[in-house]
Amino acid sequence: MKTEGGWENVVFNSRDPVYLQVVRHFKEQIVTGRLRAGQVIPSRRELGALLKINPNTAQRAYKEMEECQLIVTEGNSPSRITSEENVLRAIRTELLSEAVEAFVSSVAKIDVPLDELVELVKSKYEQAQANPRTAPVNTGEGGSPHD
User: Fold this and answer.
1) What is the pLDDT of residues 68-104, one digit of tens each?
2) Ramachandran quadrant class, 63 (left: phi over 0; alpha: psi -120 to 50; beta: rest)
3) Residues of the chain with confidence (pLDDT) below 50
4) pTM of the model
5) Quick one: which of 66, 94, 117, 125 is 20 to 30 A from 79 by CA?
6) Residue 142: exposed, middle, or buried by beta-carbon count in 10 A (0-12, 13-18, 19+)?
7) What pLDDT is stored for residue 133 in this prediction?
8) Is 64 exposed, middle or buried (0-12, 13-18, 19+ CB in 10 A)?
9) 93 dihedral zone (left: phi>0; alpha: psi -120 to 50; beta)
10) pLDDT at 131
11) In Å, what is the CA distance from 4 to each residue of 13, 68, 97?
12) Pair 13, 143: CB distance under 8 Å
């Protein structure tokens, strides 16, 4: 199977359970369009090998994603990313909300006027959109963009 999906770039942190970090990686790949609705994903065993994690951890991540309706597995067919638009929108909203909450809690300590903050965010966002290769990557606390 092709190993598209950024599997080789996944770096795990020691704070969070690995299976939840795998789920987070899938969500990020979906939101960024690297994984598409209906796309076949690696088998549990393949994912374990790609990420160098225990197959039981991969199985637990897949079980979690199935329960969240993020992936669909029917019979002996390969697992696929859901095609449910409401689930896909909810994932995007979840990740965006988490990023905004982290940003707001960090910036609130500085006591910056809202209009100044909005202008700065707009400027930085436009810079990132114009030149995505040099834009800073949100890595969270001490991890990688794929935590």
Assistant:
1) 999 999 988 999 999 999 999 999 999 999 999 999 9
2) alpha
3) 1-3, 135-147
4) 0.76
5) 94
6) exposed
7) 66
8) middle
9) alpha
10) 86
11) 22, 23, 27
12) yes
For residues 121-141, one letter each, b for 16 or more C-beta atoms within 10 angstroms of the residue's C-beta and e for the rest, the string is eeeeeeeeeeeeeeeeeeebe
Amino acid at site 47? L
Cα dihedral 59→61→65→67 (10° resolution): 70
State residue 78's pLDDT score: 95
- What are the DSSP E strand ranges found in the chain? 71-72, 80-81
Burial class (CB in 10 A: 0-12, 13-18, 19+), 146: buried
**pLDDT score, position 144:** 38
- Looking up tokens 């990023």 gives 99
